[in-house]
Amino acid sequence: METLKEFGLTRESHQYGQHSLQTVTVWRYSDRLQSSTGYWVIYIHGGAWRDPRLSADDFIHSIKHVCASGDSVNKHIQGFISIDYRLSPHPDFPQSPDSTQSSDLRNAQHPDHIQDIWSALDFVQLRFGMGDNYMLIGHSAGATLAYQLLMGDSVLAGQSRPAQVVLPSVIIGISGIYDLIKIDIRHGGQYAGFISAAFGDDKAAWVTASPAQFDGSFKDNWLNAKVNILAWSPEDSLVDEPEIDHMAAKLKGDGLSVEVYKDLRNDHDFVWEDGKQIKDLVMFALAKLGQV
Fold it and tell me: How does DSSP classify residue 142?
């Protein structure tokens, strides 16, 4: 467990629910714990809604690079938060319900994942009083979850959400999955396994859960939008170019301004494994906000 003390950060973890994966990890600058200025940077990891090898700690590499950028950047950041959430079953990491405690069982089904993001944001907003003073970064399935927040009740399959949560002023979607039906078709049905594990076999539910297929208006739902970024690598072997194109078209069609970057480098997971490119996107967002 890395604390990042060398960058002047404190580390703390909090449960926002009863499940062992319902946790948030928080890094704050130890010399300004009482500060209320600056943006929070919040990360949602990917992993096809089911990979237990991915976790909140995947954000550490990016945090290091942001912190190493110097005071001109760090003074505009209040802290970093990474969200863990309940996962769906994975065939390569089976669990027995008979021998696994319910609080450790990875058996989540939509809308469990997005409800956890709502609950996590509710928890950190109440605890740290950030309002909309945060940017939300999602990678892969994490990007899906970030944009599902903007879909409101329509994506919650009749379940409720905390009404007091304030949406972010910035969203950065990296290598995101935005249309479950079409990405599976383009990959010859090979993605149906992990999509069904998370969303069930009913493909009508896949459509309803897909941000690029949202039949409402993102602009109407995201009134406090300031910066909206989509990023993708041409070298990505898992998520292809039509995903970012379809999502960008939907956002623009709804009247939102969106920055589209197709110049990330290397394969799907490299962006978070290395972290430099996420740092660059954070710096770009701060620049767009007029902070650096």
Answer: H
Residue type, 110: H
Q: DSSP letter string over 170-188?
A: EEEEES----HHHHHHHTT
Residue indicated by tokens 């500060």? 35
Tokens of 66: 């942001």
CA distance 185 to 3: 42
What would the pLDDT profile of 48-92 be if each residue is shown by its tens digit? 999 999 999 999 999 999 999 988 888 999 999 999 999 999 999
This prediction has a pTM of: 0.97
What radius of gyration, in Å, describes the C-alpha atoms of the chain? 18
Under DSSP, is residue 129 helix (H, G, I), strand (E, B) or coil?
coil
* Partners of 40 in beta bridges: 79, 134
* Preceding amide of 111 cis, omega within 30: yes
Tell me which H or E stretch contains 90. none
CA angle 46, 186, 91 (to 5 degrees): 45
- Model confidence over 135-192: pLDDT tens digits? 999 999 999 999 999 999 999 999 999 989 999 999 999 999 999 999 999 999 999 9
Whole-angstrom distance, CA of residue 190 vs CA of residue 64: 35
Contacts of 255 (CB under 8 A, 6+ apart): 217, 219
What residue type is assigned to position 239 of the chain?
A: V
Tokens in use for 175? 């290598």
